[in-house]
Design brief:
This is RNase H type-1 domain-containing protein. GO terms for molecular function: nucleic acid binding; RNA-DNA hybrid ribonuclease activity. InterPro entries: RNase_H-like (IPR053151), RNase_H-like_dom_plant (IPR044730), RNaseH-like_sf (IPR012337), RNaseH_domain (IPR002156), RNaseH_sf (IPR036397). Pfam families: RVT_3. By secondary structure, the chain is an all-alpha fold. It has one domain. It contains three helices and no strands. Helix 1 packs parallel to helix 3. The two termini are 21 Å apart. 14% of the residues are buried. The mean pLDDT is 90.
């Protein structure tokens, strides 16, 4: 399944994080709670699994993903 979202100005990290967030939202809406999320971006994975840096420019996106974990 693909998706399109106008993410405004950003970079590939923002695109990866938004893709993870979108997939997690889809899973939650479908009532799936035990999912496996795969990403080819080690940086995105580390940001999601590590402690939240509230000063990171994508902190709101990362925080939203963490809420769904």
């Amino acid at each position: 399944m693909g998706f399109y979202e106008d993410a405004g100005v950003g970079d590939n990290l923002k695109a990866e994080l938004l893709a993870i967030l979108h997939g997690m939202k889809l899973a939650w809406r479908a009532n799936f709670r035990n999912i496996l999320c795969v990403s080819d971006s080690l940086l995105a994975v580390n940001l999601v699994l590590g402690p939240l840096d509230v000063l990171h420019k994508y902190a709101p996106i990362i925080a939203h993903i963490k809420e769904l974990l």
